[in-house]
Structure of DNA gyrase inhibitor YacG:
Amino acid sequence: MADSAPPRPPRPCPVCRKPVERESPHRPFCSARCRQIDLGRWLAGDYAIPGEPADPEEEPG
Ligand SMILES: [Zn+2]
């Protein structure tokens, strides 16, 4: 068997871009702090979908 495939690099933390340890309990974040930061962004509406219609099936006219 050829071992040509390179080992997968650890995914960087989506908040601070630091490498996350495989065994990290906070994955995909590097730490509980970064997880809280990401959660805060969610609550702040950073990821909200703009202009989503409530009833797409109900079209006027
Ligand atoms: Zn982080």
The chain has one helix and no strands.
